[in-house]
Fold S-methyl-5'-thioadenosine phosphorylase.
Amino acid sequence: MVSPWTIGIIGGSGLYAIEGLEEAQWIPVDSPWGKPSDEILCGRIGDVNVRFLPRHGRGHPISPGDLNARANIDALKRAGCTDILAISAVGSLREQIEPGRFAVVEQFIDRTTSRDNSFFGTGFVTHVSMADPVCPRLSEMAATAIAGAKGKVATGATYLAMEGPQFSTRAESRMYREWGADVIGMTAMPEAKLAREAELPYALIGMVTDYDCWKDGEAVDVGKVVAQMQKNSQLAREAVVRFINALPAERESSPIDFALEDAIITAPDHHDPALLAKLDAVAGRLLAPR
Ligand SMILES: CSC[C@H]1O[C@H](OP(=O)(O)O)[C@H](O)[C@@H]1O
Ligand SMILES: Nc1ncnc2[nH]cnc12
């Protein structure tokens, strides 16, 4: 039986491949938006097609600010994904979300400044809703899968996306806490926005690696992040497999599958054909002749 789900997994720092994929093969996927971070590891877990993309590339050559998130999301859409589960190393801004815990993200504060954050623009203007930026169905399944793998979970987390690549100052870290952010990272924006524009339901699991620098005497460094990721990466892999094995046989449609429906404002006689050509995957559902 062929599953209706094709799950895109975006692996963050420390998660550059996943094991247990049947018929696994790294396949290059071209995108009109430039070069994705790497080839996509395509395979199956049971009946479910899986497409794995290491966000920073194998060996972590790409810095957060240089990630081509448009190419990454477009390539996952071209590779047939119906849904995306992203995984990120995050710092914690809350005492009770300690390193080692998994934070399932529900909201974002986007403080990135220098990234291409939309597929759309002059010649095809759209404004998608980001009020509820993640897919509740995927997030709930992710939390269940982590708990099933005996991981500690925090749900409903707010993720602050910073520009980086430097870590925050103590004043910034304290300010983000006052803003209500729970975890901090450098990569989930504009990734989550672009997934929504591509009508791909998206959920984000933050793997908590450190307390950032708001706590007295604490400061984050790469060594701390990598050491904590190594401790938890096996559990993360197990949670991913559980998540996939628990997907229902049917995939009921999600409102996110139709996110562009009420978002496009440019009149057809003002469409830019060059931009439309690049949107063949992202907005193909609406642009294909009907
Ligand atoms: C290696 S520490 C900082 C680095 O880790 C996170 O990346 P990802 O979200 O891809 O796991 C963070 O956002 C920074 O890019
Ligand atoms: N404290 C932190 N700040 C930003 N990105 C992170 N990734 C992991 N820990 C982080």
In short: DSSP finds seven helices and nine strands in the chain. The domain at 85-283 is CATH 3.40.50.1580 (Rossmann fold). The two ends are 29 Å apart (CA to CA).
